[in-house]
Design a protein that fits this description.
The chain is of the alpha/beta class. The protein folds into 3 domains: about 5-85, Winged helix-like DNA-binding domain superfamily/Winged helix DNA-binding domain (Arc Repressor Mutant, subunit A, Orthogonal Bundle); about 90-165 and about 270-305, 3-Layer(aba) Sandwich (D-Maltodextrin-Binding Protein, domain 2), CATH 3.40.190.10; about 165-270, D-Maltodextrin-Binding Protein, domain 2 (3-Layer(aba) Sandwich). The chain is built from 11 helices and 11 strands. The chain has helices spanning about 5-15, 20-25, 30-45, 60-85, 105-115, 130-140, 150-155, 175-180, 225-235, 245-250, 285-305; strands spanning about 50, 55, 90-100, 120-125, 145, 160-170, 195, 220, 240, 255, 265-275. The strands form 3 sheets. Strands 3, 4, 5, 6, 9, 10 and 11 form a 7-stranded mixed sheet that branches. Strands 1-2 form a two-stranded antiparallel sheet. A two-stranded parallel ribbon has the order 7-8. It is elongated.
Length: about 300
């Protein structure tokens, strides 16, 4: 049984006549009729009722037609996959994304890649603190999206593009803030548990210490920012989270920002996408980098308009 015969069967069923099927496939009517006869000979039964103006599938014909659709779909997927690799498109791309980064920065890029390169597998690798940098350093990820300092990225020799900005805010549940009284400095928070995200990397260089954690501070550790947020909402501690992750809780009042009269707790962060310098990439990797470049241009334009 030939795939070509199954394509003819599909065209005849979809158009309803041999004539229209011939026009759709750019063939002659005798060629279409011959293909149908060959298919019926191979199946050993009639597939169409030819008594009316339009060809109607017989009960057996309906089963053969439905099965043929599955076969043709798989054959077309296989053809697309072969063409994908013939064009040199990557089989897999890994992107490390720091939990403090807003996923909305990444989703438009992923949408365009999914549309243009449906056969490439994309792996999103969640990281915290130094984990994203380490993933790119070791080659575990082709790209990373993470908050960073430009000087740090330059010291590592990375190519980088700014793609977003955010604010890290220290927050707690209203009941815990009431218990704190009126704290003025960080020292006043020592006896209340600080919930700290554990580094997913080795924590070398700038990360080789607990940033924003004072000596003597009571502390709990988590490996996930959503778990951290849950603990804060339930009043089990206080901690720092990116603004986009707690916007709803701040609006609803289930979390409140800790404001110290003598200490400034919140700080701005800039999100970058970065990669190894002169990375040899295929068309998928190049498209991802270009898409982030377009995001950066839009961000810069928006900043100019805001000012």
């Amino acid at each position: 049984m030939k795939l070509d015969h199954l394509k003819v069967l599909r065209a005849v069923v979809e158009t309803g006549t041999v004539k229209l099927a011939a026009e759709t496939l750019n063939r002659t009517q005798p060629a279409i009729s011959q293909a149908l006869k060959a298919l019926e000979f191979q199946t050993g039964t009639k597939l169409f009722d030819r008594s009316g103006y339009r060809l109607e599938l017989t009960p057996v014909g309906k089963r053969v037609y439905l099965q043929s659709l599955r076969v043709l779909s798989e054959a077309e997927d296989l053809t697309e996959l072969i063409m994908h690799f013939e064009k040199g498109q990557e089989e897999q791309i890994t992107i490390a994304i720091d939990a403090a980064s807003d996923p909305d920065v990444l989703t438009p890029v992923l949408a365009s890649i999914q549309l243009r390169f449906p056969e490439t597998r994309v792996i999103l690798q969640a990281e915290l603190l130094s984990g994203a940098i380490e993933a790119v350093q070791t080659g575990a990820a082709a790209f990373a999206v993470a908050p960073a300092l430009q000087v740090m990225l330059e010291e590592e020799g990375f190519e980088y593009i700014p793609v977003d900005k955010s604010v890290m805010r220290n927050v707690a549940a209203p009941m815990l803030i009431d218990t704190m009284g009126a704290p003025r400095t960080l020292a006043d928070l020592r006896r209340f548990h600080q919930v700290i995200a554990r580094d997913s990397g080795q924590g070398s260089g700038l990360f080789d210490r607990e940033l924003g954690v004072q000596k003597g501070q009571r502390r709990w550790y988590v490996s996930d920012l959503h778990m951290k947020k849950q603990l804060l909402v339930t009043g089990l501690g206080w901690g720092r989270l990116p603004e986009h992750l707690i916007a709803e809780e701040l609006a609803q009042g289930t979390l409140q920002e800790i404001r110290l009269t003598d200490t400034h707790l919140s700080f701005d962060i800039e999100i970058f996408v970065f990669r190894q310098p002169k990375l040899i990439t295929g068309p998928v990797g190049s498209s991802i980098w270009d898409a982030f470049g377009a995001t950066s241009v839009s961000l810069e334009k928006h900043s100019r308009q805001a000012t």
